[in-house]
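[Meeting: bench + compute handoff]

Bench side (C.D.) handed over the final construct sequence. Compute side (W.E.) agreed to return the predicted structure before the next meeting so the bench team could plan truncations. Sequence as handed over:
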Amino acid sequence: MPRSIEAAVFTAQSGAHCELQTVQLADPGPQEVIMRVRACGICHTDIGTADFLPRPSILGHEAAGEVVEVGEGVTEFAPGDRVTATFSSCGTCPACRTEAPAYCLTHISRNFDGVRPNGETSFPGADPGIFGSFFQQSSFADHALVQTDNVVKIPDDLSFELAAPLGCGIQTGAGSVLNSLNAQAGQSIVIFGVGAVGLSAVMAAKARGCTPIIAVDLNPDRLNLAKEFGATHGLLGDAADLVEQVKTWTEGGSDFSLECSGAPISYQNAINCLRPKGTCGTLAYPGNFGEPVQHPGGFAFMDTRTMGIVEGDSVPKEFIPELIQMYRAGDLPYDRLITTFAFQNINEALDAMHQQSVIKPVLVFGDD
């Protein structure tokens, strides 16, 4: 029988906020589990997609908690397992077979279409129907229905609030440097936008031995924090001589750039600051979905490279344990990015993220 859960619902009337409601969560089917959510990070993807996804909707895609029920055929997990949830992939398409699950051919449908892989809703009986199964989680709720492919076991001594952001933001930033770009010691990198994702990239670049590491942001406080995490230089994003300054510090241009902000001008600067054969990785769509992207053109079109990066090219069941080891070794101190909020105060957390007064808000749930 479906169970009653408390969820934060974006409604037609709630605007940028949520309404706490009691809803019904479906029973787990084959290769599905129900997790009791103990912590859930808030990501810019939640905020951005809330503006155009159908409402009512339940978002959230950085959950950590405990398995409380498993569906038919589940052998990898059992009730009581401590887990974190991430993006979903089919496991059988050409991308998944070549260990590139972030580029699964069903990535959009599985993570953004609002239904489970079997086509059913996670929230039966609601009128009007609730858009759910966001990243096969919809974890702005005290329980979430997830697929076995997007759940990763975590050690007993790792807190849930530390485990939650690994599912998206931290693995995206760190993975972009370590996996996607595969930056090496001595190579230069410029990181545009140093929120949770960008700062994770800074940490990973330092761990890999990159130099110089240049952080770019409009917020001076975040530039100072980036320097604490390993950036060798900081630049305001609206500096008139930004590209020239980068080229001075990198002896003609950077080996790599990462664009994490989604601002079209940052995308163009990220390309223009590269040396020949340099690579720009884009982690955020530069502009509005559906609108053409303006490349700076010129010879940069021929002698530099751009690559879209999804989830840091992570294979989560392998990479998330690696990130945990990096954290334990002191190479990924992302705990310093986290500010916790009680789940009931989710709207306060959303406001704080909009206002940039916090970097990575994490919702925590009571023990009742």
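W.E. noted at the follow-up: The mean pLDDT is 96. C.D. will use this when planning the next construct.
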